[in-house]
Amino acid sequence: MSKVVIVPCSGIGKSYGTVAREGAYVVTEDLRPDTTQRVPLSLLVLGDEQAHADVVGAPSITIDGCKLACATKMVTESGGTVAHDPSAPLRASLAVLDVYRRHRDLKPAGIAELNEGGQKLAQALAEEVVTLVDALSTADSLPLSQNDGGGAGDGGQNA
Amino acid sequence: MGVKMPDLPKKKVGIVACSGEEMAEGTVTRLAALRVLEQLRPNETVTICLPLFLAGGEGDRAFARFYPTIAIDGCDKHCAARGTEMYSGKPAASIVVTDVIQTKHLGTARRLSEAGMQAVDVVAEQVAQRVDELLGVNWDRKQGQPSKEAQPAEGLEAKIATCSCGSGIPIQKVQVDGQEVTFIALPLIFEQFREAGKLPGDGTAAELMQAVKVYNPIPDGQATAYTEAVMREYAVFCQEKN
Hints:
The structure holds 2 protein chains of 2 kinds.
Chain A: E1 4-8, H1 15-31, E2 36-38, H2 41-45, H3 49-56, E3 60-64, H4 70-77, E4 92-95, H5 96-102, H6 116-137
Parallel strand pairs in A: 1-2, 1-3, 3-4
Chain B: E1 13-17, H1 24-40, E2 45-47, H2 50-55, H3 58-66, E3 69-73, H4 79-87, E4 93-96, H5 97-100, H6 114-135, E5 139-140, E6 145-146, H7 154-161, E7 171-176, E8 179-184, H8 186-195, H9 202-215, H10 223-241
Parallel strand pairs in B: 1-2, 1-3, 3-4
Antiparallel strand pairs in B: 5-6, 7-8
Helix pairs in contact in B: 1-6, 3-9
């Protein structure tokens, strides 16, 4: 089975973008290095063949730093399969702001360097991502590309 | 009657970093950009968020069309420079970390080594220097501020501010609470929103004002009055176009 693709927004204007980026590192390097891989958003959008192949050939989890949802929007436009529907958790997008709402005590600050709250929020985010990764990794009938039926923005399909 | 061009508000330089997550050089671009934005030239620069820029951030794209940008890329794929050129205009300057820094021991994308942090300093200084060049500012490094003798780059300023050359930024004068206020780029912003089908209404105001604020400072406590005035003018603009 293909590794689950993790695409963080890595926005540079707010702490939440850094949390998204750091959370992606925690998942792909610490928690699930064998079953996940990161794909840089800019490469994907600018047409890098490998990045595109990675995204269309595997389930994706996007991590958005703000409500503009750039990562989700661009992975979807690039042919990836990201679900917005919470009832379709096998492909998913996560918003840092939503995770923060569940962890109000972990207020992030800093962009170049996250404060302690931001670091902990990234960890909490990563743990939520891992839950999704595990579900995706063990799903036998998961559609692997948009061509399999998981159209952009349609909520994807459950395995 | 010809349009009298206003004194432009302080011109700034947009910084676009690739922020690539897969290589230490990408992190160098990110931290160097932030160093410039937060410490070295906070009053002369604004960030242009690459993800937002690529995803269609109108404010960022519009800014980059009017004002000079510096692209900072981690590698020769030039994602920041290409993205800027693709969606807005050719960057005024382009810096590639691998051209500037020779060492391969920058650490990891997640955690830079000491050499990586030094690379951040070097790249940030180069970016700051380019900012000064683009703004025509002589930077007094001892004082940490523009030198008193610094003069704006007449050529660049004049080229942007003079409508007769055909490259001026359009402006519009609007009555805000009985005061005439000159808004930079307002006609273009209106046109972009109208073309995008974002017509006057509650849902449009916040987004439109975000774009307006890219070029126009809004005094504290006057956001509501400015929003009402701009939206009133936008309604008139749309009516006239129909």
